[in-house]
Amino acid sequence: MIRHTVVFTLKHRQGSAEEKKFLEDALVLTKIPTVQSFERLKQVSAKNGFKFGFSMEFADQTAYDTYNDHPIHVAFVRDRWKLEVSDFLEIDYVKI
Q: Domains of the chain (ranges plus CATH)?
């Protein structure tokens, strides 16, 4: 199992309609068949400046690769992520 996480900050004003729309529209990623346990998260630690997070799980590397190459993911990154995210950190985990 791979847990894919990303923490990020949007270019939009906090609490704005644009911020809310981005977070709602991210649910399109759940339509990708290999995505499991998708969560949208609000970051609350004072130890970093990121505001939000997404977390999801994949059965294996093939499922993760399918997600990365899926047209829905490619379009979301191209049309939304690259335009609306100001900073991010991606971390992928496997259990040890």
A: 2-94 (3.30.70.100)
DSSP secondary structure letters along 37-74? EEEEEE---TTS---EEEEEEESSHHHHHHHHHSHHHH
CA distance 31 to 38: 10
Q: Answer yes or no: are the C-beta atoms of 52 and 9 closer than 8 Å.
A: yes
Q: Kindly report, residue by residue over 42-92, the tens digit of the pLDDT.
A: 999 999 999 999 999 999 999 999 999 999 999 999 999 999 999 999 999
pLDDT given at position 70: 98
At 53, phi and psi to the nearest 5? -150, 155
